[in-house]
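ENTRY TYPE: paired fold submission
RECORD: A
CONTENT: sequence, then structure tokens
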Amino acid sequence: MDKTLALSALAALGQETRLDVFRLLVRSGAEGVAAGEIASRLAALPNTMSAHLKILSHAGLVRTEREGRSVRYFADMTGFRDLLAYLMEDCCNGAPELCQPVIQAVTCNC
């Protein structure tokens, strides 16, 4: 991941609704959530939610799958992992054992 994409991802997550969307999609896992359902669950207007989802998508944090006339959104765990790797790239100045608690905290079976 380059610096520009990292800044885009951090900026996307730096807004309350988009952070809520991303966390909702992470919780939903492989099932994802339909666009309208995201707006409903977070009590947001559909057109506003569409703008938020577009920003998250451009930041590499969400991906979509079309289901007929509907679009289902998923957390892009590869994009998220790349962001975490970028942030931790120079972790602990050559002493990776110091970073182990952080790595264990973000490790999951997804």
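RECORD: B
CONTENT: sequence, then structure tokens
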Amino acid sequence: MQRTGQNVGGYRGEKIQSVAVLEDCRKFARERGFIEDRVLAEDVELLFLRRPAEGSVNLYISAGIHGDEPATQVAIRELVRQDAWPSGVNLWICPCLNPTGCLKTTRNNASGIDQNRDYRHLRSSEVAAHVDWLGKQPSFDLHLCLHEDWEADGFYLYEINPEGRPSAATEAINQVAEVCPIDRGKQIDGRETAEPGIIRPSIDPLTRSDWPEAFWLVQHRSQWGYTLESPSDWPMELRINGLIRAVLTLIAPVDWRTGGKPTR
């Protein structure tokens, strides 16, 4: 497969029926024993999913915070449908954090706010509602935020790992490479890469005036996480497969609390 070359000045690629994808996700979640939290953010309803497993490990996954990143929503739906989580893992899933943007395939929400830059100031009702909900949840041992990048030459990820746990980033990149191109540039999105396809950003709160979701999580709820970026100038199926492969690699059986190494 080759790049589509459709993305000029923004995402111009394949679209999805976001409402239908979210409804499918809700249907699969109900069938698999998830609890629904429906939270109203002014006139926008947000769907959050929980499934306690009485285990000792808490996993958080989100998607759809940018409406022009449709593969993230489909990947979440497929992960819920497959239900291939490690046994004993307590799950928290946010399948579509920006419903109005996803409906119109726009990065920002209907108010023109980039929600993934709003986790410090909470200007948008969606982010304020999300943070309020997160404040009622326990800490997470691992968080995964699904994204796409229309400018990227391939798949890449950000790793936040301040405690120095055995990294799963290289294994994730190696596994994704089997189904999706990897961005192997020395710089991606204006940041130096630590390894091919891997960025390890600073998490000093003083360096960021506008916080993304992952930054809020590491400050308040989770000390280990990955932001996954599929290359949205490539065909949709390839991007979905890359995201799913990365998630399944990163959540492979592991004692997250003690920093054990993922095993396949």
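NOTES ON RECORD B: The chain is about 30% helix and 20% strand. Residues 48 and 197 are 30 Å apart (CA to CA).
STATUS: closed
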